[in-house]
Design brief:
The complex is a heterodimer of chains A (478) and B (425). Chain A is mostly helical and 478 residues long. Helix content of chain A is 56%, strand content 3%. Chain A is built from 25 helices and 4 strands. In chain A, the strands form 2 sheets. Chain A has a two-stranded antiparallel sheet. A two-stranded antiparallel ribbon of chain A has the order 3-4. Chain B is α/β, with parallel strands linked by helices and 425 residues long. Chain B has a single domain (40-174, 218-411), classed as Alkaline Phosphatase, subunit A. Classes of the chains: A mainly alpha (478), B alpha/beta (425). At the A-B interface, α12, α20, α21, α23 and α24 of A face α6, β6, α8, α9 and α11 of B.
């Protein structure tokens, strides 16, 4: 390792563990938990096992219905239209009692849309449970969480699946700027953070649509969460200026030709030059917002903020600063080439510390349990209740910040009890067909500790052994 | 981590594996010697997302209110009147009924010391009790448990599956959310406790989880036996919903289900707290207050849930309501002006609610700066006149009996400028 010189006194050793241990780490920490035989397959070249998963054309696409966000947008519009018409019809009959539509047609339409969202989620979970390239999938999940869109609004909820397919997965091994632009111009993000309806107060559209105006939500979250980070030293004035620059970024309406797709509405764009983070933007149209995004993507504070998040996601809630610096350097050297950053992560000795420091999130935990037995969730209903119970309801991150990734959040007393109950249920369904001792080796490889191996071998029943394994400190972590 | 805590934990572990809850034994010894203080209870409700204070307690008597709020202004006849300036949002029926009894007050211009208008930063500051972001890594309620530990053992509980920062720290607090019970006959909990015994994260958390589960069974059993006592329904005449806010029937049903669940959550929490050895300090989070667009309906729903939680809590605490203070706060308020999308953006001061049978009757807490252009903070937000740490400090000393020196040095270091609000209880 050429970087040992950066090591300061008291920092962790930078030598690598054995190849067997590295294979276990590759499958559990970088991946989504070992499937049967996965650790064995990684043993010859644990790093190569990961780097070959990095590919220019992006992450895998879940096997879902493949509908575009425009398709979904239109379906939602039709449903809303129908609802409105039915309400008006009812209003006509009994004006005093305006009831919501309960007709079979409206109900069916709503159920249909909900099923599609559930199918999107299930398809993603199945990909995660089955993929042999689980590092690639984890990398994609990291970016989907970085650019969180959540189902707080009905219209956004049907777009989350398409958002990941269209704006995230194709770009996760390309330049960060492309990913940022794809996310910031996608209908899911534009509706989730209220950008679609933001109008420059001095724009032509403002005159016609009284009472409508600027919304600074997307501008703020891009600065705070997606790029430079909250401690970058920007001010409220920067947020407002950026929000003005972004006016016009919207989603095509029913009356336009690009229904449900990104449109730039010139007449909603706030006229004039803007100054954001000390830079001047004189452009008068969509180029203004895009220029800001370009500069934000190239900003060293963005590299620092995002690389810190990558290190925290993959390695530890408090990663060694040398790791973040290494990623940051690669980011800046390559102009934010995410494939290069992913490779730098795999090459970093800090990332191979044998101590499993990361506590799995509920999604990671449940997926790793399916992977352990070489299976996949058979239905949405097998997956959603436990995720909701553990505090990670499908497609429902609590805020634009996305899901928390630290142990303090997820290892709460109540959550451990719920994981145990779920593990018991899972064990009852699958354990009788397994050899728990073999399973323990397959799941954890060299990470299996003697106390856990002993507890599993001494269990009274296969079910008990299985539950002990998936509730072991090593399996709960990665 | 003190030796005392460790010993107690191993005892707890043993107790849980035997199906008994040792904390009941542990605290009763104090109860006799400590008199009234041992019964005092504090609940902190964190309203996440930036709750709009001007919707919680609309200052309909403020001459600038209606113009600033435009399409989302409430009319004087729509709000539940508090005084000549303030009303409460029409959904806050329980709060209003309690206020009429002198058991609820508002702090209409309260804020944390943070001014960045970032949810995450501001929530961190609210929960750590530090003077700025990254000022502390533990929550102030947890440090309160720590500060009280030498005097008396006080248990902390958060409602929800994940542990909120406000209760994180050296003392292992419990967390609970509705779910199915633990099978007492399985060996698994005992075996796992053995596997976790050297694990500093999983060991204490798991032991506490088992113990809480036992309590939950008792709390829910006790609740089933208590006849529902809805304070708002009992004391406010039925009012018709203001025009323009009437939800559709489907929404209505959904809201009612949400309210029922919220009420149940509140009453179960109350059920926890009335048990001997139960938690005396609890935190509960309500989210969804980030109302950038279409605010009117959204905030009505959220406030109806909050009201239901408080109603349930009041019912669940029963006679212990008289020993209780509840504080509801948010990370920041919202802009005084309505924005271009029928909502409001991130602001500064908001309204805090202080409730409980332990309260003294009184008017608003802190000063009202008014909404005139000069009075607005940065010509945008309700100006803060009260640092919420002052409210917390006042309640912790006067109500919970936290030592003043420990309060200033441990619980809220670096808060000398935030003078304790005294005389509330």
């Amino acid at each position: 390792m050429g970087n040992v010189a950066t090591s300061r006194k008291g920092e962790r050793r930078l030598s690598l563990p054995s190849k067997d241990m590295m294979a276990a780490i590759a499958a559990t920490r970088f991946g989504l938990g070992a499937r049967p035989g996965e650790i064995e397959a990684a043993k010859a070249d644990p790093r190569g096992f990961l780097t070959t998963q990095i590919r220019r054309d992006g992450a895998d696409l879940p096997q879902d219905d493949g509908e575009t966000s425009a398709d979904r947008f239109e379906q939602m519009r039709q449903y809303q239209q129908q609802k409105k018409m039915e309400r008006e019809r009812k209003d006509g009959e009994t004006p005093a009692n305006a009831a919501a539509p309960n007709t079979p047609a409206a109900k069916a339409a709503r159920r249909d849309l909900r099923d599609k969202v559930n199918d999107d989620f299930l398809a993603r979970a199945r990909l995660g449970a089955n993929t042999p390239a689980a590092f690639r999938e984890r990398w994609a999940l990291f970016w989907a969480n970085h650019f969180t869109v959540s189902s707080t609004k009905q219209i956004t909820s049907v777009l989350i699946g398409p958002f990941e397919r269209e704006a995230i997965r194709p770009y996760v091994f390309g330049g960060f700027e492309n990913l940022l632009v794809a996310s910031s111009t996608h209908p899911a993000m534009l509706t989730y953070l209220d950008q679609a309806q933001s109008i420059g107060p001095n724009s032509r559209a403002a005159g016609r649509r009284g009472g409508k105006g600027l919304n600074e939500n997307l501008a703020r979250e891009i600065l705070e969460l997606h790029t430079v980070g909250v401690d970058a030293g920007y001010a409220q004035a920067d947020v407002i200026e950026f929000a003005r620059a972004l006016t016009g970024f919207s989603v095509g309406r029913d009356t336009e030709d690009r229904v449900g797709q990104f449109v730039f509405r010139d007449n909603a764009h706030e006229p004039g030059a803007r100054t954001i983070l000390g830079r001047h933007y004189g452009q008068g149209d969509i180029k203004q917002g895009l220029s800001v995004l370009k500069d934000l993507a190239a900003d060293p504070r963005t590299a620092r903020h995002v690389c810190g998040k990558i290190a925290r996601h993959f390695v530890s809630d408090a990663p060694p600063p040398s790791l973040t610096e290494r990623l940051e350097r690669r980011w800046m050297d390559t102009g934010g080439d995410l494939a290069a950053v992913a490779k730098a992560l795999v090459e970093s000795p800090e990332a191979w510390d044998p101590t499993p420091a990361k506590f799995k999130t509920p999604y990671e935990y449940t997926l790793s349990t399916w992977r352990l037995v070489g299976a996949e969730p058979s239905a949405y209903e097998r997956l959603a209740p436990i995720l909701t119970g553990l505090g990670q309801k499908p497609f429902s991150a609590p805020s634009p910040k996305g899901w928390a990734e630290d142990a303090q959040t997820w290892a709460a007393p109540d959550a451990l009890i719920k994981r145990m109950q779920w593990a018991q249920g899972f064990a009852a369904a699958v354990a009788d067909r397994t050899d728990p001792n073999v399973l323990a080796r397959q799941a954890l490889g060299d990470r299996l500790t003697p106390p856990v191996a002993k507890a599993v071998s001494r269990a009274e029943t296969r079910r008990e052994a299985f539950a002990l394994l998936v509730m072991s400190p090593e399996f709960l972590r990665r | 981590m003190t030796a005392q805590v460790m010993n107690r934990r191993s005892l707890l572990g043993l107790g849980a594996s035997l199906g008994i809850s040792v904390s009941f034994l542990g605290t009763q010894a104090f109860a006799a010697s400590d008199g009234d203080l041992a019964k005092k209870k504090l609940v902190v409700v964190i309203c996440r997302g930036g709750m709009d204070g001007l919707s919680v307690s609309p200052p309909v008597g403020d001459r600038d209110y209606a113009a600033l709020r435009g399409s989302i202004a409430l009319k004087p006849e729509e709000v539940l009147k508090l005084d000549d300036t303030f009303g409460l949002h029409p959904e806050l029926k329980t709060v209003h009924a309690l206020a009429a009894r002198g058991q609820a007050r508002i702090a209409p211009a309260i804020a944390s010391p943070d001014r960045a208008r970032s949810h995450f930063e501001a929530q961190d500051v609210l929960e750590t009790g530090a003077s700025g972001v990254y000022g502390a890594e533990t929550g102030w309620l947890n440090r309160t448990l720590e500060a009280l530990a030498p005097v008396r053992r006080v248990e902390g509980l958060s409602v929800g599956t994940t542990a909120p920062l406000i209760l994180r720290g050296k003392v292992q607090a419990a967390s609970w959310s509705p779910g199915k019970g633990v099978d007492e006959t399985a060996r698994l909990p005992t075996l796992l406790q053995d596997l976790y015994k050297t694990d500093p994260l999983l060991g204490p958390a798991f032991a506490r989880g088992l113990e809480t589960e036992t309590m939950a069974q008792q709390a829910m059993t006790a609740m089933a036996a208590t006849p529902a006592m809805n304070v708002a329904a009992a004391s406010t005449p039925a009012t018709t919903a203001p025009a323009g806010m009437s939800p559709t029937k489907a929404n209505d049903r959904q809201n009612r289900q949400g309210s029922d669940a919220a009420r149940k959550l509140g009453s179960t929490l109350g059920g926890f707290m009335v048990q001997a050895g139960g938690p005396q300090i609890a935190a509960i989070s309500l989210d969804g207050f980030d109302t950038h667009a279409g605010q009117l309906g959204q905030i009505a729903t959220r406030l109806s849930y909050m009201d239901a939680v408080l109603d349930g809590l009041h019912t669940g605490l029963g006679a212990e309501w008289k020993n209780t203070v509840v504080i509801a706060v948010t990370e920041f308020g919202r802009t005084a002006r309505v924005n271009g999308t029928g909502g409001t953006d991130h602001g500064t001061a908001s309204t805090g609610l202080i409730l409980g049978g332990a309260l003294k009757r009184g008017g608003i807490v802190g000063d009202w700066p008014g909404l005139s252009q000069n009075a607005l903070f940065e010509n945008r937000d309700t100006a803060p006149t009260l640092d919420m740490r002052g409210l917390f400090k006042g309640v912790l000393t006067d109500h919970m009996g936290v030592d003043r020196a420990a309060l200033e040095s441990k619980v809220f270091p670096d808060s000398a400028a935030a003078k304790p609000v005294t005389g509330l209880v």
